[in-house]
Amino acid sequence: MKKLLLLLTLLVSVTVFAQVPDSKVPLPTDIAAIKKAGKLVVAMNGPDSPPFFSSQGDELHGLDVEIAKSIAKQLGVPAEFRRDAKNFAEVAEQVRDGRADIAVSKLSITGPRLQVLRFSNPYVILRQSLIVNRLWLSQNTKGRESYEVIRDFDGKISFIRNSSYDTYARINFPKAIFLPEDSWDTVINNVMSGKIDAAYRDEFEIKKISFERPDAALSTKTITISDSVDHIAVAVRPNGLQLLGIANFVIASQYNNIDVKKLMNRYKENK
Hints:
By secondary structure, the chain is an alpha/beta fold. The protein contains twelve helices and eleven strands. Strands 1, 4, 5, 6, 7, 8, 9, 10 and 11 form a nine-stranded mixed beta sheet that branches. It has a two-stranded antiparallel sheet with strand order 2-3.
């Protein structure tokens, strides 16, 4: 009995020692650097993307802001948001070259990004979608179903420059004519007017169009690509394994059931 009590005492002591803040074991390098700086630098795209992130005056809010702050809270430091990136490619590059510790910016997982960054488990998974000019679609159907026309798409397709859809379009629609734009509003205006044949983005952003611009339904048709998805995740540098583990924990415990319906509810509340 005495031996059992001694063993239990030793186990408790080891557990307590492992949890004490003044342990002599050094922190992993990625966490040590953040602790030394006293802040978690978060890369986030400059243009607003509600309900993921948007600003009203000096106040920044949205799903991605909440996730970033939750990760920073686990580290015991404040989150500092860096929003000087002009596009999603610049967001990824800021993490890659060390100007930011982490990216939480509706950032999609793509093949090229996987080669230079580590990604968390997705906190949102969206189907890829198109909004297609109705006149172009009717002229190119020729007895075929809409999905057959899209599968062999060879018209003019537009998307946000340097976004994940810049990558997806060139992989999924190799016969198309690619016309990237810096503004999503420009893309939508062009497909409605017939200047381009289709706009390419995720199902949530396409769904937002019907809410913001109901007149778009007169000249366009929405097509969802059921077998192509967009994984939205947190990105860290290749050596940020400990930080990645914290991000995965936060996502699994607090943000593991975000779907399009919940995103739309958030968006409408913001509006």
